[in-house]
Structure formats: C-alpha cells, structure tokens
Amino acid sequence: MGGDSKFLGLWYVAPYAVGLLLFTAFPFVASFYLSFTDYNLLSSPEWVGTDNYEKLFTRDRTFNKSLSVTLTYVFMTVPIKLTFALFIAVVLNDKLRGINLFRTAYYVPSILGGSIAIAVLWRYIFAQAGLINMIITAFGGEPVNWFGDPDNALVTITILRCWQFGSAMVIFLAALQSMDKSLYEAASIDGARNWHIFRYITLPLITPVIFFNLIMQTVQAFQEFNGPYIITEGGPLKNTYLLPLYIYDEAFKNFDMGYASAIAWVLFTIIMVLTLIAFWSSKKWVYYAGDKRD
Amino acid sequence: MKLTTLSLALCTTAMATAAVAEDLRMSWWGGDSRHAATQAALEVCGAKYGHTISPEFTGWGGHFEKLTTQIAGGTEADLMQVNWPWLSFYSADGTGLADLNNHADTIDLSNWDAAQVEAGSMNGALNGLPISTTGRLFVFNTTTYAAAGLDLPQTWDDLIAAGPVFAEKLGEGYYPFEAGGLDAALLMTLYGTQATGKALIDPDTNEIAWTQDDLVNAINFYQTLVDNNVIESWRDRAADGNVPLHENPEWSNGQIAGTYQWDSTYFKISDPLADGQEVEYVDLLTQDGQRTTGIYRKASMVFSISANSEKQEAAAEVLNCLLNEPEGVAAMGTARGIPASATAREQLLSADAIQDVQIEAQAKVINAEGPAIHPMMEFPSVRSAMVDNLEMFAYGEIDAETAAEEMIFAIQEALEDIK
C-alpha cells in the first residue's frame, strides 16, 4: 500500500465506515424490518404486516400516555435547559476572578449527569426525608412528595436533566467568546444599554449556536432513559414513563422486539419531523455570517 | 518396567487433567451475601477440577433481560442460575437449555426427588436442577411489635387491629406492615386465594380462575390495609422513589415492622437491620372461612447449563460440586436458601450451618397448603397488569370494579400471547 495509493483514503475511513455499517446502519434497517414482525428474541421473526402499528395507534393506551409524557418532558426540558445554559454562559463570559474554576464547576454535572450514581443521588436528594425537603421544612414549609405525587414526579426528572446544562453552556460560551468585540464597542458608543446589546447584537449573532443546541438537546431529551428508570421506574401512574422506557420494557421485559421496534420507529419519526420543522423555521430566525437579511 | 508404568500413569493423569481443565463462565443474581458465598464456592470447585470459572453476577433487577439477551445471542454463561418460571420461556420444547440427564454420570441426580426433577424438566428434558424450594411468608419485626405492646399477628384481623395501635403508641411513620408495587399485588393475590381456594391463574387451563367479584374483594382488601394504617399508601411509599425494601431505612430501623417475602431472602432482609432489631417468620395470616392457606411456593431457582456451551461436561462437574460435593456445599452454605439436594441439606444440618430461623421458615413453606402456581404469574406482562391497575386504584384514578375488569382483560391478553 503506497503512500500515493488512490485507495489510501478508503483505508483511513474504513474503521469508521465498518463501525457505522455494523453498529448503526444495520440495526437501523433491521429494526425497521422487525417493526413489521412478531419477534420474541428466542425464535425467528414472523411477518405480521402493519399489525404492530395498528395496535400502537388504535388500542395501546400505554403508548398514548407515554407519548404524552415524553412530549411534555421534552417541551419542558429543552427551553428551560437552553435558557439556563445561555444565562450561565453569559455570566461566565465576564472577566471575573477565578472564572475558570466556575466554568469547570458548572460543566461537571454534564460529565457526571449520565451516570447511574447521580440518578441514585437525585433519588436521595428529593426523597421525603431528603435534602430538598429538609431545606423546605427549615424555612417553615411543608415537605413535598416529589416522586409519589403524579404532578411533581415529571418536574423532578426534568430538573435533573436541566441541571446537566454544561455541554450546552460550553458551546454557548465558545460562541460568546468568538464575538467581534468591535460590535459591542460601537453599540456602547451609540448609547446602547446592556440588555439592548444582548437582545439586538449578541442574540442574533449566536442564533446558529442556539439552533445547534436546540436540535441536539431535543434529540437527547427524547432519548432520556437513566433518570426516570433509576429514580421512579416510570411511575407514579406512568407519569415519568418516557418512550425509551416503554421501548425497553417491551423489548427486554415482555420480549416483544417487533412491537418495541415499531415504537422506536414512531419515536424516530417524531424526532425527525420536529428536526425538519426546526430546520424549516431556522430560515426565519437563524442568521449566518454574510446573511443579507435586515 | 515399574518406572515406565509409573511414568505412563503420571503422564496419562497429567494429560487427562489438562484435557478437562476449562475456562468457564457462571452467571447469577442475588445480594452481597450470595455473591460472596458463590465466588468462594467457585474457587474451591474450580480448584478441585482444575477449571477456571469467571463469575458474572448482578442484582435481581435487570437480570432476566440480560440473560434473555445473552441466550438470544448465544453468548450466555456456561453455567447459569435461572428463575424457575423462566424455563418455560427459554426452553418450552426442552432444547433451549442443556438436558442434564445427559450428564447423569457426573451429576448425582439421586439427591432430588421425582417432583423436584419434574419441576426442572421441560418436555422430558431436565433443563434445571432446583437449588432450593421457596415460598412467600410473613416476616415481622419482633422489636417494634414489642414496643407497641402487641403479639405478632396470626390473622388478618390481628394485623388490621395493629395499625391504629402503632399510630397511637409509636407515632406517625410507624406501620405494622409494608406492601407496595409487586408485593402489594401478591398480598392482594394471597388474600383472594385464601378466600376462593383457587390460584388467580389456573395452571391446568391457562385461564383466570377468579370471578371479577373475587378480584374486587381482594382489591378492596388492599384499601382496608391502607385505611387502617397497616401499610403506607402507595403515594407515600413512592415518595422515596424506586427503593427496594432492604435499602429502605424505615425497614432497617424498625418503623416498618412487617413484610411478605420469600423465605430464601432471609439474609437480604435481615442483614440491613439496625442493631437491636430482630425479625421472625410467622405462618401465613388467616381469615375467617378461608378455603386454603394459600402458600405461594415454587422452586426458588435452578442451575442450568447452556445448550450452546462446548464445555458442558466441565460445567456439569462444577454444578455437581456446588450442589452435592462437600467443598462446594460448605462454601455455598444457605446463600440460596436451604438446599434442595438431600446430601447438601444433611451436610449443612449436621454442621449446624443452617440457622434455626431458616429451618423454621422452610418448614412453614413446605407444610403450608396452597394451589399450584402458574409460571405466568412471574411474567412481566401479567405482573404489570396487576401492579399497574392496583396502582391506578390506589391513587383513586379508578374504582375497584374497573381495576378488576382491567386486570382481567390485561391478564387474559397476556395469556393469549403464550397460547
């Protein structure tokens, strides 16, 4: 294999391409086929046509509940998380003493966030006799039933997700630090206040990054599993029973891999449609360098 | 000549030993005490036969899913601890797991009676050897009951009467019993079984044996326990998240003073108790006019050998060592309950290695009467049908009649799937 071989590039990308084909593309296609079958893992799949999808959309109340909970979770989590991440990024963009320490500290939850240990820790913090209720009662309040009350459980799981704002925050911070300072100077000379500078200069110029974070966080929120699985196991009354938990239960508890694949494809379709809507709407609110719009 | 013969003999022995020495894998679920005992037993059994055995152990949660995925992919361990009801899923025709009859020269099957062998057989193939027999019993915290000035309950009425006494004498947050999730569903099932004399699902017909009214009565009984401060409400119990009993501080410190558990899990529930807290098994509580004691009894678990393993004979040697041979039996002790193997049981009894409380509990399980249990009672689809609807009832989302109707519908649907 000479250095000038026309196949050299192919060799370089081969490991990634093989991994992609084996561990992503093949399962992706296989799950689509399986969604039209009755397959219990231990025997061969049997073709059932659109039965799984018909059951899903006409008779499965658990799916309706799980879909509703998932959409609520995503529409709560993503805006809160992005807003909070942007707020912290703006704060950390200032030249404060020990700023690097703060930047690291705020990023740490994102590194730990996906771990089982943090989910267990969260369970203890929000337990009936946990830290949060201790603080509430210390100030004279009544303890809150965070996990047992159907109205609170999803909020508690949402807070866990929002707490892991570090990765979005770092991307916002990078965008803020790459801003052309002369724009701020010009605005200040023209008498613009901080809020106006942020609203009319900073925000429009970081819309590509907001758009990127919006897509990534939406996709991740739709795939949330660890938190609700460890903390509430989907309860109470399936109020934290996100679609990934339902897929897992159907696939690995009820061993209905065909049905689980059908749910997975519905989830994929929802994510894809929302992403396409986001891309379509981005033409109206995302501004790129060299953009000729007013 | 003598030297040549000796050399040949040594050489043959060495070759034989080398020929059978294998690298094996063994998987199981359990608590810390079981993990430690099993690893010790694998060391001595491995050393005895020259095998190296890699342990693969987890808690109960998720083990079914993991094992099934491994079996589907043909990557399961050579030797496995399998829950008895799973046999019908893994090996309905007897070919999904190795037939241990084929290793009868290695495994001393005479240590199990015909009924036990039958329990581990699928379609004539011995797919699993019962490790122990287990049943659900009542366990009460004698320390807390004494503090409340009460004797341990013998009837459901005694238990119901204890609720207000606990609240009055011990204060808020003290309960004479606990039942949430699956435990609540099984407690409800026990009450109904005693009242009807029938298991919820008839193993002979694969049909639901109770009427809707039977189920309504059982569901309402659950509410009676909540209303009388016998158990925490579902909502309050869920306030701490998904925490098992043995990790619950209220159990450890005696605030929760009773539970309905497998007798084979004695160490799991007694180990976490705080100093000074004592527990005791009692016979199943009774109700007026009951038709059966209603014991929920089954082979607690079996040891199986993978049908895909190319080292089945070596795995059989280890299996026999763990269940029948002195070294393995001594190391394993009662980490999986009182052994079903006659030899192992005698060895542990003569060595005083079985605690009195375990012997008494086992006697209660064996001597109690009750209808046969359908394996589907342990399948997730049936369990979630019971637990999900009981939860809806407990939260006041549906009434007992609707809960019963929904349970019957969902269980029938699950039973249809296996037909």
Automatic annotation (TrEMBL), chain A:
<feature type="transmembrane region" description="Helical">
    <location>
        <begin position="153"/>
        <end position="176"/>
    </location>
</feature>
<comment type="similarity">
    <text>Belongs to the binding-protein-dependent transport system permease family.</text>
</comment>
<protein>
    <submittedName>
        <fullName>Lactose transport system permease protein LacF</fullName>
    </submittedName>
</protein>
<feature type="transmembrane region" description="Helical">
    <location>
        <begin position="259"/>
        <end position="280"/>
    </location>
</feature>
<keyword id="KW-0813">Transport</keyword>
<feature type="transmembrane region" description="Helical">
    <location>
        <begin position="71"/>
        <end position="92"/>
    </location>
</feature>
<dbReference type="Pfam" id="PF00528">
    <property type="entry name" value="BPD_transp_1"/>
</dbReference>
<keyword id="KW-0812">Transmembrane</keyword>
<keyword id="KW-0472">Membrane</keyword>
<keyword id="KW-1133">Transmembrane helix</keyword>
<dbReference type="GO" id="GO:0055085">
    <property type="term" value="P:transmembrane transport"/>
</dbReference>
<feature type="transmembrane region" description="Helical">
    <location>
        <begin position="12"/>
        <end position="36"/>
    </location>
</feature>
<keyword id="KW-1003">Cell membrane</keyword>
<dbReference type="GO" id="GO:0005886">
    <property type="term" value="C:plasma membrane"/>
</dbReference>
<feature type="transmembrane region" description="Helical">
    <location>
        <begin position="104"/>
        <end position="125"/>
    </location>
</feature>
<dbReference type="InterPro" id="IPR051393">
    <property type="entry name" value="ABC_transporter_permease"/>
</dbReference>
<feature type="domain" description="ABC transmembrane type-1">
    <location>
        <begin position="67"/>
        <end position="278"/>
    </location>
</feature>
<feature type="transmembrane region" description="Helical">
    <location>
        <begin position="197"/>
        <end position="216"/>
    </location>
</feature>
<dbReference type="InterPro" id="IPR000515">
    <property type="entry name" value="MetI-like"/>
</dbReference>
<dbReference type="InterPro" id="IPR035906">
    <property type="entry name" value="MetI-like_sf"/>
</dbReference>
UniProtKB/TrEMBL annotation, chain B:
<feature type="signal peptide">
    <location>
        <begin position="1"/>
        <end position="21"/>
    </location>
</feature>
<dbReference type="InterPro" id="IPR050490">
    <property type="entry name" value="Bact_solute-bd_prot1"/>
</dbReference>
<protein>
    <submittedName>
        <fullName>Putative ABC transporter substrate-binding protein YesO</fullName>
    </submittedName>
</protein>
<comment type="similarity">
    <text>Belongs to the bacterial solute-binding protein 1 family.</text>
</comment>
<dbReference type="InterPro" id="IPR006059">
    <property type="entry name" value="SBP"/>
</dbReference>
<keyword id="KW-0732">Signal</keyword>
<dbReference type="GO" id="GO:0042597">
    <property type="term" value="C:periplasmic space"/>
</dbReference>
<dbReference type="Pfam" id="PF01547">
    <property type="entry name" value="SBP_bac_1"/>
</dbReference>
